[in-house]
Design goal:
Pfam families: ABC_tran. The chain is 31% helix and 29% strand. With 330 residues, the chain is α/β, with parallel strands linked by helices. It binds adenosine-5'-triphosphate.
């Protein structure tokens, strides 16, 4: 059995919108539009999409905060809303904008309280806390009231709080939003370590694609509440035709642009001393060999395709049958 299952999961909101100077009309906003997805134990899934795509709404349905309008979700075999209390013992949730810590208490006391809330055996609690203290460098601010923590420190506290009861699934909504480079690295390193251990399933929404590149082998992209891509980052690159580039620095300048089979020349820079080729079917070795016969090579480098660029292209591509987000209500 998959640890997360969604079958035709759908969520609509009824909103009132202005329709003229004094009139207001009811409209239905389709936030999640029939998602079918399975996540297996130990997977690390990046769940991304443009603003308003339906990411947070999906996570809220999976964590029992929101009731689906239609379809069905199961997390750890449980129905999130109907079995919310049981589910809470088996999942951890970190929502970047919200806190599960006690504002006036030092972190250490929040952690102690959580042990009682979740009825965690003292030995398990102590072992998990020791691990988090080491990996997330908590010791410096363990005795500081949460209200005095910086965002990065608080986020490290939130991650710890979400893990102390040993959840099987961890849902993270924008865990690195607003963090400085060092805190981001700490959080990513910690999550990567958690993923490597293999017993926690991770679902992560983020607008920071470096999070995804660092952490997730599987990428689910949603737009207008529908899945528009489900697969690896490499699959995304090949689907959108993004290829690696080879940049060759030459000692001299060629009189004619070189033609290399399987590696078209995409641009010439530095007054002809730098040539950039796209690797279509040729290998780097073939490009080097082909160029070596024509000019003296000073340096060669490979540029990986830029994920930001691919994702931007994906967001701009209209999904098949993508309807308007707002439909008149009934
Ligand atoms: N409580 C609500 N009432 C009405 N509309 C809502 C509600 N919550 C979300 N929506 C709408 O549902 C759509 C999806 O919102 P959601 O917050 O799930 O998107 P998101 O992908 O998480 O976006 P972001 O990246 O901006 O956080 C949006 O059009 C949003 O305005």
């Amino acid at each position: 059995m998959s640890v997360i299952e969604m079958n035709g999961l759908r969520k609509e909101f009824t909103v009132r919108v202005r329709a003229g100077r004094l009139r207001r009309e009811k409209r239905t906003v389709t936030a999640v539009d029939g998602i079918d997805l399975r996540v297996e134990r130990g997977e690390m899934v990046g769940y991304i999409g443009p603003n308003g795509a339906g990411k947070s709404t999906t996570l809220k349905m999976l964590t029992g905060v929101l009731m689906p309008s239609a379809g069905d979700a199961r997390v750890c075999g449980l129905r999130p809303v109907a079995e919310r209390t049981r589910l809470a013992l088996r999942i951890g949730v970190v929502f970047g904008q919200r806190s599960q810590l006690w504002w006036d208490l030092p972190l250490r006391d929040s952690f102690a309280l959580l042990r009682h809330v979740y009825r965690v055996p003292p030995g398990d609690h102590a072992a998990r806390l020791t691990r988090c203290r080491g990996l997330l460098d908590l010791d410096e601010f363990l005795d500081t009231p949460v209200r005095q923590l910086s965002l990065g420190q608080r986020m490290r506290g939130e991650l710890t709080a979400a893990l102390l009861h040993g959840p099987e699934v961890l849902f993270l909504d924008e865990p690195t939003i607003g963090l400085d480079v060092v805190s981001k690295q700490a959080v990513r390193g910690f999550l990567a370590e958690l993923g490597r251990a293999g017993d926690t399933t991770l679902v992560l929404t983020t607008h920071d694609l470096a999070d995804i590149e660092r952490l997730c082998r599987r990428l689910v992209v949603i737009d207008h509440g529908r899945v528009v891509h489900d697969g690896s980052i490499a699959a995304l690159h090949s689907r959108y035709g993004s290829r690696r580039l080879v940049v060759a620095e030459l000692d001299g300048v060629l009189t004619e642009p070189p033609t290399l089979p399987g590696a078209p020349l995409v641009r010439v820079e530095a007054d002809g001393h730098r040539l950039v080729f796209e690797l279509e079917s040729a290998t780097v070795a073939q490009v080097v060999a082909g160029l070596g016969g024509l000019a003296s090579l000073r340096d060669i480098s490979i540029v990986e395709p830029d994920i930001e660029e691919v994702i931007a292209r994906l967001y701009r591509t209209p999904a098949e049958g993508k309807g308007p987000l707002l439909t008149p209500g009934v």
